[in-house]
Design a protein that fits this description.
Keywords: Membrane, Transmembrane, Transmembrane helix
Protein name: AbrB family transcriptional regulator
Helix content: over 70%
Transmembrane segments: 37-57, 69-87, 93-115, 151-174, 194-213, 277-300, 306-326
GO biological process, one term: regulation of gene expression
Oligomer: single chain
Distance between the termini: 53 Å
Number of helices: 15
Number of strands: 4
Structural class: mainly alpha
Strand order of the largest sheet: 1-2
Strand content: under 5%
InterPro entries: AbrB_fam (IPR007820)
Length: 362
């Protein structure tokens, strides 16, 4: 037994997670899937977890807090995308940012009605399971208000997984070819030789940004803190380099493993029910996001793909990583997902009281 962050893990289970994740990444790379270093680990580790694989007397488990050590890498890379040209373009984003303020409550309400009428879920499970953002907050608030914990956790988790697996695949199909990093396109500056000075500044921005972001209460501070400091360093000319490509791939691998192990211990009945509902809801929301993107793309000067990613119901970290890996306006996508989470949590908290009164009155 190995103790990490105060919890015990069977070493066989940890080793299996790493080997399954790495094997899945290499297999996905060989097949040519989008985001192979994320796609492969999620599928392979998740499949083993669903099948109930146990090693050393323990189900597949991997320390979730290790993920937090890698999240700043995404923030540093996104911060490096800030250029004077990008800053000038930010003033054009207001139509899509304002649209989010209407889009999030409307999507939440529509998904809630579907879960109540066609999913047979109780009020708290339907409401918090339908939240299009704030994974941890949705589960925390739902458990407090009496939601079915298994179904709620599965729905929120599958929302992220479905977006991660199918958005890059869908973009590749629409484009008719591999997109972004899968086609050999690398992040701007990622291939530049990293000097000792740049490495030191990047590490400093990552550590300081993480501390400032998490302790100041910034939304998703573990990623937004490093974004702010990295952007400032790049815009002022203090920093030229980007985190090397291998750090992005390692981050994808770790995030993929930590997502995959969450399937361990889920009751198959809850999982299948949540899968049916989540797949339908995500498909509907992505269809709406595509229509919104077709209308807003020309207004904000961004590609349809960037707007779809920005309005997709995936996680901030996950969608930012997808944007980075596919080389799709990461700054634009991240800005919108920060706002999406804030609005989703506010609507989730305030809206439940209204929904409960309405259902009680009905």
């Amino acid at each position: 037994m190995i103790r990490i962050y105060g919890q015990g893990y069977a070493w066989q289970s940890l080793l299996a997670c790493l080997l399954l994740g790495l094997g899945g990444a290499l297999a996905a790379l060989a097949v040519g899937t989008p985001l192979p270093w994320l796609f492969g680990p999620v599928v392979c580790v998740g499949a083993a977890a669903i099948l109930g694989l146990k090693l050393g007397g323990d189900v597949l488990r991997f320390p979730g807090r290790i993920r937090q050590l890698f999240v700043p890498v995404i923030g540093l890379s996104i911060g490096g995308s800030f250029t004077p040209e990008v800053m000038a373009g930010i003033t054009e984003w207001w139509p899509s940012l304002l649209a989010l303020l209407v889009y999030i409550p409307a999507v939440h309400w529509a998904c809630y009605l579907y879960c109540r009428r066609y999913g047979g879920l109780d009020v708290p499970t339907a409401w918090y399971g339908s939240m299009p953002g704030g994974f941890v907050e949705a589960i925390t608030m739902g458990e407090r208000d009496g939601a079915n914990e298994g179904v709620l956790a599965a729905m929120q988790f599958l929302r992220l997984i479905i977006c991660i697996l199918f958005i890059p695949l869908g973009l590749s199909i629409i484009e008719g070819q591999q997109v972004g990093s899968a086609s050999g396109v690398s992040l701007p500056g990622a291939d530049l030789p990293l000097t000792l000075k740049d490495a030191a500044v990047l590490i400093g921005c990552g550590v300081a940004g993480y501390i400032i972001g998490t302790r100041s209460g910034m939304p998703a501070g573990q990623i937004t803190g490093p974004i702010v400091l990295s952007a400032a360093a790049h815009l002022t000319g203090v920093l030229d380099g980007q985190p090397p490509v291998w750090t992005i791939r390692t981050t994808q691998l770790v995030i993929g493993i930590t997502l995959g192990v969450r399937f361990a211990g889920m009751r198959h009945r809850d999982l299948l029910r949540a899968l049916r509902l989540s797949a339908t809801l995500v498909a509907g929301v992505l269809t709406l996001a595509t229509l919104v993107a077709l209308a807003l793309g020309p207004l904000v000067g961004e590609s349809v793909e960037a707007v779809v990613l920005s309005f997709a119901p995936g996680g901030l970290v996950e969608m930012s990583l997808v944007a980075l890996s596919l080389n799709i306006s990461a700054v634009y996508v991240t800005a919108h997902h920060v706002l999406r989470i804030v609005v989703a949590v506010i609507v989730g908290r305030a809206g439940y009281a209204i929904v409960r009164r309405r259902e009680g009155a009905g």
